[in-house]
Each structure stands twice: as structure tokens, then as C-alpha cells.
Amino acid sequence: MKNVKLIIEYDGTNFSGWQMQPNARTVQEEIEKGLKKIIKKEVKINGSGRTDAGVHALGQVANFKETFSIPIQKIPLALNAMIPEDISIKEAIEVPENFHARYHAKGKRYIYKIYNGQLRSALLKNHAYFTSYTLNVEKMKKATAYFIGEHDFKAFMASRTSIKNTVRTIQDIRLYEQEELLILDIKGNGFLYNMVRIMTGTLVDIGRGRIDEKDLPNIIKSCSRESAGHTAPPQGLYLAEVYY
Amino acid sequence: MKNVKLIIEYDGTNFSGWQMQPNARTVQEEIEKGLKKIIKKEVKINGSGRTDAGVHALGQVANFKETFSIPIQKIPLALNAMIPEDISIKEAIEVPENFHARYHAKGKRYIYKIYNGQLRSALLKNHAYFTSYTLNVEKMKKATAYFIGEHDFKAFMASRTSIKNTVRTIQDIRLYEQEELLILDIKGNGFLYNMVRIMTGTLVDIGRGRIDEKDLPNIIKSCSRESAGHTAPPQGLYLAEVYY
């Protein structure tokens, strides 16, 4: 029995997210169907975590345990031939027997892309968040510093979620301009449901002057979803890396 | 009666190209339907030229002549609200009465994006040409120089096309790497049908060693489609600018 770690890229546009669910096209299901074709067995894969409908991944991680004859290094090409083109298996490596993509994840890196122009971009429609508000990028950059470190991020969690421990550590956060895009690059030991999208929405609200960047520490302390900004839409979000 | 020049971005993925045709979704038709809604008249727009199914545009140009009351500078936002999100009108300006987007075009600039990796990219599936062959980029760069200037480009025209004058001038051509992409940026006074895609395919064939870059002048001189390389697929091609 081998334990295999997969690194997976996908375009979330036409998926109802990562996780298997009835009557919905999901990334997990497509990969499991593909694995069945190449190793002739029903395989269940463990993802590092869910992604929502429309959210993309550059480096989602999943693992599965099974006995099979195909050499591991041939899995990416063989599996890609069996799954839709909006998924690409970028790497497959053997890992120790006890490795679990979700339980052993030590951190994640996300990227969020904002297209800030006067008129929408047709080409970025499914791959960035378009906003035509004039954004004060310097204020947004300053504000990112308040997120660094260990905080209770309850104010940045979708309100319908129930979870006990809402303390997370943001290890690194960068906001930079790249051609016509504004890119948020954020690394942490874990993220609450919708956390990156609410952090991004709050930064956009700061950029357009609806929230004062100096209020951000109080918003964090409030632990109240209502005090934070809006939830930025899914299509700008990319799960970039999972750390172990 | 005003003559209006539109600058148009579109994602060609879900279009059967630019030009109106029966039973097909085309960019021209969507824009004409949108114009009818905002100016309450049947309007025919003249594009600078066709683009094929799957080909994108950053700066397609079209014009139309009509009498209407909406201020011209409000057309992009008003029209974008009426047309699908995979098209975006980026600019609308009034031009002299005799301006015609096709007849008066003095040149065009195209961009072609190649994704050269060992495994395909899910996110670039509809927006770049994936090839896993090892490419000698230096040879490809050297080869581009042979295209510069005035040549009979008949060898780089889809063979089913009939056209008398196949002489065109390439004014500028650059091949460069940008992150994981190899980008061809090419400017000329005009392009034959499939010309950029055949030039790109020939450069890829040079990069992978199927064609010797020193043979390129002879391939051009041959005026024979068979001697040039393959036709690169539509999804890597972007009409970037039209010059007047």
C-alpha cells in the first residue's frame, strides 16, 4: 500500500468547489473518477481543505492510499489524460504512511487578484475581482500590517459558520501591483471559512474610504463579522500552496 | 449622424469568432444586439477584421454610424451593461465621418502566448498554447529576425485561402519569457489568414528542432504552406491593437 501526495491546479470556474457532493461537478469527484480509470480501484482522496465554487487552485494538495502497479512519477500524465482539462495534476510523490493532506497541513498560502479599472475586463471575468472604485493602494498596503501575527479572526469568518477556535496566525502578507492587477499574497497557519475573501473585501473597503485603515485593529478585536468589510467574490481567489 | 470608434476586449473562448454568422454566437452580433438596446436602432458595426473561434482580443476596433442622443463617453458603461461579460467595450470616441475600422487600418499588433511546461496548466487552458516539448528559446528568438521587413508571406497563409497580394510587412517582432509563459509580440501592416498562428507554429517547430532556424528564409521564399510549420491553436492568440 502506497500513500501518494498529489499537487493539483484547477480552474474553479465550472466547479461547485473541491468537495464531493451530490448532483454537482466537483474537483474531488473528477480526480477520483480518473484514478479509478488508471488504477482500477475505487479510491477516496483527502484534500487539504475545501475550496468554494469559482475559487481556483495553483497548489491544492490531496493524498490517497492504495496498492497499484503504475510508477508514481507517471501518475500526473496518466491521470491528466483521464480528467477534464480544467484540472491538472502537477506532481505525485510517495509520502510516509501516516501523511494526511488535511490533518498535517501546517499552513497555506493564498493569492487574491483584484482588477481595478474603470471598465470591466472580459478576459479576467472568471479570474479576478473587478472593482471600478478608485482605490487608495497605499492605505491598503499600510492596513495589511495589522493582520500580521496571531489574532482571533472571528470578525473575518462567514457568520453562518460554527467553529470553536477562531485564532489564527498570519505569517506573511503582501499587497502589490502587477500590470493592471492588484495582488494580495497571504500566508498563514490556517484560515477560517471565507477569511481571505473577507480580509480582501475589508482591504477594498479601506481602499475606497468606507473603512478607515486605523480602525482595523479594533475591527479585529471586535470579533464581529458586521464590523469587517464585504466578502470579496470567489473568482479572485487562488489556493497557492499548502505547507507541511 | 455620428461615426463612433469602439475599442473592444473579448474572451474568444465561447464565441464562434468575431463575424456575424447564422446559428453561431459571435462578438459582432452581441455588440449589435446591445447597441440596439441603448440607441433603439438596428446598427451594423464594421470590425477591423475577423478573429476566429477561440481567438481573444485586447483591442479589437469597430465603428458604426448612427444618430443617437446618449453622450459618446457614456457608451462603454451603458453598452457593457447590455452585453455578455466576456465582451468589454473599453473605449468609444467620435471619429471623422469617413473613418472605417477595416479599410483604414494601417497595421495590427498581435500577441501569442505559449505555455511550455511538462504538464498542462488548468488555468491557462483557454488562454495559451500548451506544449510540453523542450524548446530552444534562443533559436526561436534568433529565428524571429528573419520575419522582419517586407516579404511574400504566402507560406504562412492557410492553404484554403484565396487572395492575390500576399506581401506583408512585419514591423516589429519580439519573443520573450514572462514567468511561465513564452510570449510572441508582433506588429505588421497586415496579416494573412492564420498568419500569426502559422508563424508561431513554425517558431515552435524551430524550438523543438523539427525545423532548422537557418532554413526560415528559404521557407519564406518557397511561398509554400507545406514548407512552413504547424498552425498553432487559436486560444493562444490575442488581437492586441489596431493602428490607424
From TrEMBL, chains A, B:
Q: Which GO terms describe its molecular function?
A: RNA binding; tRNA pseudouridine(38-40) synthase activity
- Keywords, sorted A to Z: Isomerase, tRNA processing
Q: Name one Pfam family in it.
A: PseudoU_synth_1
Q: Where is the Pseudouridine synthase I TruA alpha/beta domain?
A: 7-103, 143-244
The reaction(s) annotated as catalysed by this protein in its Swiss-Prot or TrEMBL entry are:
uridine(38/39/40) in tRNA = pseudouridine(38/39/40) in tRNA
Q: State the top-level EC class.
A: isomerase
Query: Which positions bind substrate?
Result: 110
Q: List GO BP terms, alphabetically.
A: tRNA pseudouridine synthesis
For this protein, the record's CDD domains field holds: PseudoU_synth_EcTruA (cd02570)
Q: State the similarity comment.
A: Belongs to the tRNA pseudouridine synthase TruA family.
Q: What does this protein do?
A: Formation of pseudouridine at positions 38, 39 and 40 in the anticodon stem and loop of transfer RNAs.
The subunit field of the Swiss-Prot or TrEMBL record says: Homodimer.
HAMAP family per the UniProt record, alphabetical: TruA
Stated name of the protein: tRNA pseudouridine synthase A
Which organism does this sequence originate in?
Answer: Marinisporobacter balticus
Its encoding gene is what?
A: truA
